[in-house]
Prior knowledge:
Elements: E1 4-6, E2 16-21, E3 24-29, E4 32-37, E5 43-48, E6 54-67, E7 81-88, E8 93-104, E9 107-118, E10 129-137, E11 143-151, E12 161-172, E13 182-185, E14 188-191, E15 194-198, E16 202-204, E17 207-209, E18 212-218, E19 225-232, E20 239-247, E21 249-250, E22 259-260, E23 278-281, E24 286-287
Antiparallel strand pairs: 1-2, 2-3, 3-4, 4-5, 5-6, 6-7, 6-12, 8-9, 8-23, 8-24, 9-10, 10-11, 11-20, 12-19, 13-14, 14-15, 15-20, 16-17, 16-20, 18-19, 21-22
Amino acid sequence: MLMLSVQGASGTPDGIEYSLGPQGFEVTAGVFALSLTDETGPHYNFYDRVENETEHHVMLLRAFEYVDDNQDGLYNAENDSVVNPSISFQTASWSFGGFLTQEDEGVAVGLQFNLSSVGGFAPHQTELRVVLQNQIQIHNQNALRFGFVVDGWNWAREDTNLAIVMALGTGDRGQQMRRPEITHQPKNITFENGFFAFDSPVFYGQNQAELNVSLGGAVSQGEGEQILLCVPYFGNNVLVCDTLIGLVQASSIPSTTQTTTTLLGTDRLLLVSVGVSVVIVVVALLQRKEE
């Protein structure tokens, strides 16, 4: 097991600090704090370190193939037909790796890392690999950008769509997640002071397709609101979908001003331009589950 801890110079609040251990991954950038665990599938948990009362949650639940019978680009249980059982992201082993830090005058100002599935998803998607490519920058320190990479989906048919199901939730610090109040706009969803934003289109090979996102109702026992990311058939290509999560508004601390996140910027996760003086590569791999 590899333990990893990296801090900005002198522990300055202007730098990015992160650690990786048995309980998962944790990172802070100014007032923004985020953890990522994989015990029940990938689970992002983030909060304002000054306010320090409310947590926001983004969880990956499952994925399934369906026939879009009414041709609206979305999944609706009343109108569309599921093909084969869904896969649960909880059933896979997950591995952290690909850590890359960016430094400017001794201060960590950027961080990239991956969380990747290992060993496929039984019983129908044994060759499937899902990678979450994450990026956090100190200049946008109340958000984390992550890209879904889906490689090796075994299609049952060629006239179907793929739905990736997630859950958004809020809760008091250290308490159970609850179903939040949701506002759904064309390119972002806000849930209280948290947001989930998404670019459209998604990319596969040299092609692109529209990403449609819909609300799916409460998770069982009211723990969160389901959202479905729906994309059309992309064959044997690798699918890349760029998204952003974070705080709508963040508190201020010394040397950090009040910030409001721009939900969608022009830079994309997979085309990162590093304009800093020093680049340090840190490679870390944590495998906590046996295949």
